[in-house]
Amino acid sequence: MDTMTYDYTEPVLSPKGQKMRDILADYITVVSHRLPDDVTKKLVELSKIEVDPLQRLIYDTMMENQMLAGKLKRPSCQDTGALQFFIKCGAKFPLLSELNAILKDAVYRATKQAPLRHNAVQTFDEFNTGMNIGDGIPSVFMQIVDDSADIEMYVYMAGGGCTLPGEAKVLMPGEGYEGVVRFVMDRMTSYGINACPPLLVGVGVGTSAETAALNSKLALMRRVDSVSPNKNAAKLEHLLEDGINNIGLGPQGFGGKASVMGVNVINTARHPSAIGVGVSTGCWSHRRGKINFDSDLNYDLPLNEGVEL
Amino acid sequence: MKTWHLTTPIADDDIKDIRIGDIVYLNGSMTTCRDVAHRRLVEEHRPLPIDVANKAILHAGPIIKANDDGTYEMVAVGPTTSMRMEKFEEDFVKETNVKLIIGKGGMGPGTQAACKKYKALHLVYPAGNAVYAALHVEKIVDAQWKDLGMPETLWSCQVKDFGPLIVSIDTNGDNLFEKNKIEFNKRKEAEIKKIDAQVKFIK
Ligand code: SF4
């Protein structure tokens, strides 16, 4: 039997590009070992509201695990996901032309360093590249936002279990926001249970399947305790949060007082004849990092207080 | 909720009184076994190269470190969604006489039937706690079907106090997740009604 292989040669980067790659490889490693501050804080809160011994045992295990992962510098969950980057970049950021190569090589190196699981399977040829990179992995979503020389990026490890509930579709306007609610709620009881609750639920509303889907994923990049600037969207976040909590999935779906760490909605305009809706979920082990660079590659890590690379 | 400590080899008698919602800690032999290994055994009728009779399997794809001396070390391990194996599990239990099937989330009617007929349990390890789990793996004693790559290889582990494992299907064929699901769906409908009255944004 022929074994197929994935060709990858590390790119020749400028000295500055190498520096950025090395910082990112170190940061990806940190993201795999330690949850962002907003998630940790929320998990501590949720652990306190569960009273039954089974639920408490699960939360205790989670806390102990995160402590051990930090101490031993190991990936806290064995599924270190498919890597994704969500980027806002100024048009004058000096490494723009090298950026794709930098990101891919950073994942390649972090995979050995962390170590991360090999999670990239080439589709149709159906073989694991064994490097955790492949065609379109890492996935990079970029917006050029202004004329500055700065770049802001979210690093996300999309695990299998928490990726599975993802879905997007286009509703007829007659179905209204009630249709959005039904769509999200149904997904929670069918697939949410297996996505390792308590979940962060991202809801996207837009004009088509892919705008809604992308909005729902961007919603997972927002902090768990953040609130939409749109009044009605904020109201929906709140209603869904209470509603899903009252379903009572509990940690790992064993039942309990809470099901979610939060619900975040991101919305963009729609065609009068269509309402696109998408849902994405993040698991309790929501490994989402954020790193901001200026043009000299000075950086800060707003979600990881006290971390130095 | 009762707590049990089981040591392999496990006899039918050892697990007959264990009920859904109970907690188990495992000592002894546990082998990782997931999608392709199930398919090879059930569809291609290839015998499993590791004997799991009266022992445990774990639906998992671990992160393993290969040492220079040819031994392996468990870096991180945790369960993957068991439902993917549902299609094969009834035949798998019948063929192998495995006693504990450990994974994540619930399983379906095939596994229920197998647990009842052949006396086995499905249990859930709280997923995402991969370092905690890895530290309860004392040793990797064997690795087979390595051609499947790191996640799918059969890694045969010697474990100590591996858990907490929450029983999701017991030897009566009772199914914790199916029971919960009925309740969750009922509550969901009530919540949707409440929310719908407040989201009439299109006027
Ligand atoms: S859903 Fe998240 S916590 Fe659960 S196994 Fe997957 S990556 Fe890990």
TrEMBL record, chain A:
It holds the Pfam family Fumerase. The keyword Transport does not apply. It catalyses: (2R,3R)-tartrate = oxaloacetate + H2O. Its cofactor is iron-sulfur cluster. GO terms for molecular function: 4 iron, 4 sulfur cluster binding; L(+)-tartrate dehydratase activity; metal ion binding. Keywords: 4Fe-4S, Iron, Iron-sulfur, Lyase, Metal-binding. InterPro entries: Class-I_Fumarase/Tartrate_DH, Fe-S_hydro-lyase_TtdA-typ_cat. Its EC number is 4.2.1.32. Residues 24-291 form the Fe-S hydro-lyase tartrate dehydratase alpha-type catalytic domain. Tetramer of two alpha and two beta subunits. PANTHER family: FUMARATE HYDRATASE-RELATED (PTHR30389), L(+)-TARTRATE DEHYDRATASE SUBUNIT ALPHA (PTHR30389:SF19). Belongs to the class-I fumarase family. NCBIfam families: PRK08230.1 (NF006084), ttdA_fumA_fumB (TIGR00722). This is L(+)-tartrate dehydratase subunit alpha. It comes from Levilactobacillus acidifarinae DSM 19394 = JCM 15949.
UniProtKB/TrEMBL annotation, chain B:
This is L(+)-tartrate dehydratase subunit beta. Heterotetramer of two alpha and two beta subunits. Residues 5-179 form the Fe-S hydro-lyase tartrate dehydratase beta-type catalytic domain. One of its GO terms (molecular function) is L(+)-tartrate dehydratase activity. Its EC number is 4.2.1.32. Belongs to the class-I fumarase family. Keywords: Lyase. It catalyses: (2R,3R)-tartrate = oxaloacetate + H2O. The lineage of its organism: Bacteria, Bacillati, Bacillota, Bacilli, Lactobacillales.
